[in-house]
Design brief:
The chain is an alpha+beta fold.
Length: 266
């Protein structure tokens, strides 16, 4: 026998291998219980067989992962809905603002167009009025195509002979005249009897336009029937009349004091 045969061994007993373990499973208190029991070991082993127990949640890792993914998805969907709602609100406000700006722009454009149309109308009327006055003055200032012959020559000759005489209100000559007294006296020279006052003389014969005057036409200032002054057209754009006490009887161009109208009695 070996001298060391009776000396106890100090080597630790070997644990059972994985192949010698048995797995028992059960559910206790809502947990999955795993019991691992080791195989039989020698009686003189330093350590007794042990039972290893581990409790794990019933929800597996796969289920937890799936639940987490579902939560993330729900959160993303909620975020998307919120973002879409904010975008829709912003678009709605922008559309309303754009609609308001458009209405204001249309209103402003219409007002500007109306203003420009009114300005253009006024400018056109002013231009037409200026052109009419210019044409009228040119016509009246131009030499008359009608020359004084016969009775008209006698009429003009008499009127020119009175130039320089005094103006006296109510006088009919021969040394002084007022306006209607001079025209009455002049037409008496050729056998035409005129009323005494300007108002009545302005309604005699036929009304004629100032752009179609002939020698011997009676000019009047004011309205027909209520004229306050008269004279006689003598051609070449001039008239003769007893103007006032300062000037007496004078010959003047028509644009010196443009008459209102004219009548023709010859």
């Amino acid at each position: 026998m070996s001298p060391n045969a009776l000396i106890p061994s100090h080597r630790k007993p070997r644990r059972p291998s994985a192949s010698s373990r048995a797995l028992r499973a059960g559910v206790t208190g809502g947990f999955l219980t795993l019991a691992v029991t080791g195989a039989t070991v020698p009686a003189n082993a330093a350590e007794k067989p042990v039972a290893e127990t581990q409790e794990m949640p019933t929800i597996t890792t796969a289920l937890a992962t799936s639940a987490a993914k579902s939560a993330d998805t729900a959160e993303q969907v909620a975020f998307n809905y919120e973002r879409q709602a904010l975008q829709d609100s912003a678009f709605s406000k922008a559309a309303k603002a754009a609609e308001k700006h458009k209405a204001e722009a249309v209103k402003k454009a219409k007002a500007e167009a109306k203003k420009k149309a009114e300005e253009a109308r006024k400018a056109k009327e002013a231009a037409q009025a200026r052109a009419s006055r210019s044409s009228e003055r040119s016509t009246l200032s131009a030499p008359s195509s009608s020359t004084a012959t016969g009775s008209t020559a006698t009429l003009v000759s008499f009127l020119k002979a009175q130039l320089g005489k005094a103006y006296v209100l109510g006088s009919s000559g021969p040394s002084s005249y007022d306006c209607s007294g001079l025209t009455q006296a002049a037409f008496n020279q050729i056998g035409i009897d005129l009323p005494r006052v300007s108002q009545d003389q302005s309604t005699q014969g036929t009304q004629v336009g100032l752009d179609n005057l002939q020698v011997g036409d009676i000019l009047y200032w004011g309205s027909a029937g209520s004229a306050y002054h008269v004279g006689v057209y003598v051609g070449d754009g001039n008239f003769i009349g007893a103007q006032n006490s300062s000037t007496g009887i004078v010959e003047r161009p028509l644009n010196y004091d443009m008459p209102t109208g004219a009548v023709r009695v010859l």
